């Protein structure tokens, strides 16, 4: 008797790769915190949650040498066609020169690809 494999939602998949990124950073000696939040609001009598990122980033990572703001992305097909848009999101803010900005791009069964912004 086989059990049908339940399809993972995009939100759950995103959380999976966010946690995977946090674990990898901790293994590399970084202190980390999540910057994304869910804000509760009421619209027409219904409670909904709105997902927001601080400074266009999912993760803040730092060690004694550097501070990195990271946006984690996942694509099932491995094609990251919105790179320009994601980079523009980062560039909306005024960043000190000492801060690094990175896009962490995940695809199924592959190592993370890190793009400097």
Total DSSP E strands? 7
From the 3D structure, determine the CATH topology.
Trna Endonuclease, Chain: A, domain 1
* Cα radius of gyration in angstroms: 16 Å
Shape: globular
* Overall CATH architecture: 3-Layer(aba) Sandwich
- List segments where confidence is low: pLDDT < 50 over at least 5 consecutive residues: none
Q: What is the succession of H and E elements?
A: HEEEEEHEE
The description of the largest β-sheet is:
5 strands, mixed
Helix content: 10-25%
Count of helical regions: 2
Distance between the termini: 49 Å
Give the helix/strand layout.
Blueprint: H1 10-27, E1 31-34, E2 36-43, E3 46-53, E4 59-62, E5 67-74, H2 83-90, E6 99-106, E7 113-116
Parallel strand pairs: 5-6
Antiparallel strand pairs: 1-4, 2-3, 4-5, 6-7
What does this structure look like?
The mean pLDDT is 86. The strands form two sheets. This protein has a five-stranded mixed sheet with strand order 1-4-5-6-7. A two-stranded antiparallel ribbon has the order 2-3. With 117 residues, it is α+β, with helices and mostly antiparallel strands. The radius of gyration is 16 Å and the shape is globular. It is 22% helix and 38% strand. A hairpin with a 2-residue loop joins strand 2 and strand 3. The protein is built from two helices and seven strands. It has one domain: 3-Layer(aba) Sandwich (Trna Endonuclease, Chain: A, domain 1).
In short:
With 117 residues, the protein is of the alpha+beta class. It has helices spanning 10-27, 83-90, and strands spanning 31-34, 36-43, 46-53, 59-62, 67-74, 99-106, 113-116. Strands 1-4-5-6-7 form a 5-stranded mixed beta sheet. It has a two-stranded antiparallel ribbon with strand order 2-3.
């Amino acid at each position: 008797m086989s059990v049908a494999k339940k399809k993972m939602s995009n939100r759950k998949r995103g959380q999976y790769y966010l946690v995977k990124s946090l674990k990898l950073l901790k293994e590399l000696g970084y202190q980390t915190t999540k910057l994304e939040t869910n804000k509760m609001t009421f619209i027409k009598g219904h409670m909904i949650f709105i997902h927001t990122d601080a400074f266009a980033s999912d993760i803040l990572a730092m060690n004694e040498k550097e501070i990195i703001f990271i946006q984690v992305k996942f694509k099932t097909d491995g094609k990251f066609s919105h790179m320009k848009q994601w980079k523009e999101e980062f560039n909306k803010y005024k960043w000190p020169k000492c801060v690094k900005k990175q896009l962490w791009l995940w695809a199924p069964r592959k190592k993370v690809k890190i793009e400097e912004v």
